[in-house]
Amino acid sequence: MDLTRAREIAEHDFGLDVAQLRPLGGNEDLNYIVVAQDGARYVVKASATPRSALEAQTAALQFLTDSVATFDVPSPRMTTYGESIVDVGGSHPWARVLSYVPGHMSVGSRRIEPGVGAALGSVSGEMVASLALFSHPGLVEGGDWDLREAQRVVGDDPVLTPLLEASLDRTARLTLPVQVIHGDLTEDNVVHGVDGGFAGVIDFGDLMESWAVAELAVTLTSLLAHDGPVMGEVLDAVAAFHARRPLIEDEARAVWPLVVRRALVLEAGAERVLAADPGNEYALARRPFERLVLARALALPYEEVELLVLDAVGLLPKVSSTLQPMIARLVDAPELDLSVTSPMHDGGAWLAPASPEVVEECTTRYASPTLVPEAASGAVPRSVPLGMTAHVAPGRTLFSPGHALVRSATEHGLVLALFDGGWVHVDGVRPSVESGQTVASGEMLGSVEDSVWIQLCASAMLPPRFVQPGLEAHWARICPDPSVLFGRQPAPASGRNAEQLVAARDAVVATVQEHYYERPPRIERGWRHHLIDVEGRGYLDMVNNVAILGHGEPRIADAVEQQLRSLNTNSRFNYEAIVEFSESLVRRCPPGLDQVLLVNSGSEAVDLAIRVARAATGRTDVLALTEAYHGWTVGADAISTSLGDNPAALETRPSWVHLLDAPNTYRGRWRGEESGRYAAEAVARIEGLGVPIAGLVCEPIFGNGGGILLPPGYLREVYRAVRAAGGVCVSDEVQVGYGRLGEHFWGFEEQGVVPDVIAVAKAMGNGYPLGAVITTREIASRFAVEGSFFSSAGGSPVSCVVGSTVLRVIEDDALQERARLIGGELVEGLLGLALRHSRIGAVHGMGLYLGVEIVSDGPDSPDPVGAREICDAMLDEGVIVQPTGDHKNVLKIKPPLTLDTAGVDRFIGALDHVLTMADARGRL
Ligand code: PMP
Predict the structure, then answer these.
(1) Is 630 in the pocket of ligand 1 (CB under 6 A)?
(2) Which of 54, 264, 615, 804 to pair with 687, CA 20 to 30 A apart?
(3) pLDDT tens-digit profile of 192-216?
(4) Full-prediction pTM beyond 0.70?
(5) Using a 6 Å cutoff on CB, does residue 306 contact ligand 1?
(6) Is 614 exposed, middle or buried (0-12, 13-18, 19+ CB in 10 A)?
(7) CA nearest ligand 1 atom 15, residue
(8) Which residues of 159-179 are buried (b: 16+ CB within 10 A; e: fewer)?
(9) pLDDT at 924
(10) Could you read off the pLDDT of 873-892 as tens digits, one per residue?
(11) Which of 451, 441, 384 is nearest to 413 (CA)?
């Protein structure tokens, strides 16, 4: 059926007054959209489906049009002679006209939108409730999408078959009602109304008879293609479905096995399509989603999701609220702090946990996230305990909390079924009762070993002891707080969660001090290159160049503590630390650069360097480069030109600042081989400036630009011209210096030059405020003419021991060499990704100062939106990385130098996944 024929049918057969008719995409049917003269819209559809099935669809649509008020469906139009289907011949012989359901489709948002689960679950439930009364003889049996057919569809695939069998086992003994269902009620087949809610359901091409609960399983499976807190939305969808069409217990137990089955059928279907047609673009684009959905469906054990589903539909009994303590004398026992902020985890102790050393009787805290070694792996760890442990003197008596049946008594454990509702699981007890015995409230159950775990549960099923953060409210209903069993009051909620904290922060911390991420996690611990939020989730830190030695370094903490306890004065006093540190710094510098001025930050160091250059030359004007950032003080800000930090930077420089074009070899005027021209241009500009200059301040590698190396030999020529013009050369080493480059300790070494003044900070103090200007004796003495220099905390004993310790640890741990080796692995991984992902335009930098250009189509199409999305998605993957550069499209990669091969693999794996998903979304 072509356009002309479609029009003819619309006009002659269906009696439409066609104003416009145009093709509309579709997978199987040929679709045309018609706008009638009166503005009404219709879809002309020609299908190859058997006529009887189309008749069933038409009847169902008619039935739903008449019976459902909460959402629209396409309503079938009759021909002028009273038929709903017309034979048009050809490959798609059956033509119909349906009303067009107005509204907009979901745009494939990567992160789940809050509320989408409940809205979709409600539509799905309403559909099933409505279709319960519909039947039609024309429905075709045994289609591939009928989950009852999963065994045939999955076939004998060696990977999928065992997974299917596990799912089949879970439903073998369940009785599931059968009826007509839509069969593909996913986000792709609903349209949003003006208020954003779901207002219509389309595409009834999979209408079938199947299990009623299969409709819900299909709906839930579609939610799993999103990132973010998906399971919460899934459970909301279950509850919303249940509110419209109550699930019986067998159906509730079948929900997750059927979700897995749907995921397996999608997977098997995709494999089959691609085996027959390996170049099928649509199937290729969908592939990553099918894999993701299956992984998500299999991520949690069946038992666990079953508990969550039973709870979501209110099928779990209430746990008794009149319980007696099971152990005496714990009411005032202290709480053992296992949280992320507990000092017990200091120094990385959380990675190799030993049993806590317990000196007095104590209990742990229910539902409070703990720090577990898995936090280092990137997975969301099972950090939230659903019960409590009491550490007690061995032999203490355990009493029954209520009238109960002993469901099981083993060598070390007990399960009680409470007559008033709920189950009690105990581990760490020598029972004196037997399985099957009834016990009264307060009756002795046995004696406690040295620690006892007690967990309440609303189900006889064995609940998980620890769960991932995110579904606390659900789990609190299933496994309520057992504090009362320890004779204690439930502990008050501890502190503000991430959302509350960021809201409070936005109210009091001037918002110009931006924070990373719209929804930042609350991070309260760091260890080496790991950052850990209060829920116990670990993130790989790829941005903290300041923490060069890693987070939580005990050698720094010890040095600071020791020095703070003995002395902290200022540089006007005579003490060892300032001399020792200055000597260590000078040992790191080229000969001649042997005079140290100590300050507290990079901005101060740059600002002071400008003053030193001015004093040394008796001149005011300064040369700087575009695309650079040097700090926030008046002086440092004046020479900062980065548009990413200040979009108006280029128009607002004071008259004493003169700019050279950033020699950006990737995106600038001269690229690649031609980038040698920058130096000659810069020299010409310096020579033609017409004003005397105090000097040049620039980074020896474009830190702010994302680690772009300057063209070879650039600084040699430019420094020569600056010196010929009577100026001094200042190297801003705040970002790139101090060993991070691997090959070099200082950035200027990469250019083969020696500056007159070094400004350094950041890594110097590993996060403790510390900065320095290092220059020659001659320049320093000329600066002295301006009077004395003093910074109250600059060069204090504490800051100096920090500085010395940092240099010592860099040496002791061979961190510069590590930057070279691990940086090499990282570059190799990134270049590998660049081969497969066209959005990676280039990989800049060296050692562990790298940048990944995110572009849409080569150097002239920087993609800041894409870079932002990648960074947000990386957070979901447990990696902290941020964009930089004038366009904010370069991922800056400058982790603590403790990064290891496992960290590299984790980063590359996460970036690969995120780019793959983003590419796939772009192609759909
Ligand atoms: N110079 C450079 C190159 C920098 O990147 C920065 C900070 N990002 C500074 C100077 C200023 O340092 P601070 O933030 O310690 O004041």
Answers:
(1) yes
(2) 615
(3) 887 777 889 999 999 999 999 999 9
(4) yes
(5) no
(6) buried
(7) 602
(8) ebeebbeebeebbeebebeeb
(9) 67
(10) 999 999 999 999 999 999 99
(11) 451
